[in-house]
Amino acid sequence: MTKTWLTLLMLAAALIMGGATPTLAADATGEWARPGGSSKIRISACGSALCGKLIWLKSPRNDTANPDPAKRTRPLLGVQIVRSMKPTGKTNQWKGKVYNAEDGKTYTGFIQMPSANRMKLEGCVMGGLICKGETWTRIK
């Protein structure tokens, strides 16, 4: 019994004395390029959340798949495709909404930062059970 307490005390001391350092959250704000280079988005703060707008398209087009007929003729350039992303409590992860202009649907979305210059953007259905994503590269 004394040996167990001594082991626990030594483990606690090791953690306190410098074993664990806090992990700083990566900065997801900036400009990002989609794999293949077909589009670029700018992630910025909007209130206490993160949002992202399309700032460049290799082949500019309209939002033809939008479920709102009034929005189908608007250009995609400038459309907010990432919105309301808030920290999840996990390091370098945010949760919010992602608009997919290819099918006109809005999904539960996640941003994960595996490194300072890579951002995984995912859209999920069924409460996050099924997700599809891409890893974007920082350009600014």
UniProtKB/TrEMBL annotation:
Keywords: Signal
Signal sequence coordinates: 1-25
Domain of life: Bacteria
InterPro entries according to UniProt: DUF2147
Chain ranges of the DUF2147 domain: 30-138
Membrane-spanning ranges: none
Record has Signal as a keyword: yes
Keyword check for Lyase: no
Classification via PANTHER family: BLL6627 PROTEIN, BLR1215 PROTEIN
Full protein name: DUF2147 domain-containing protein
Organism of origin: Roseibium polysiphoniae
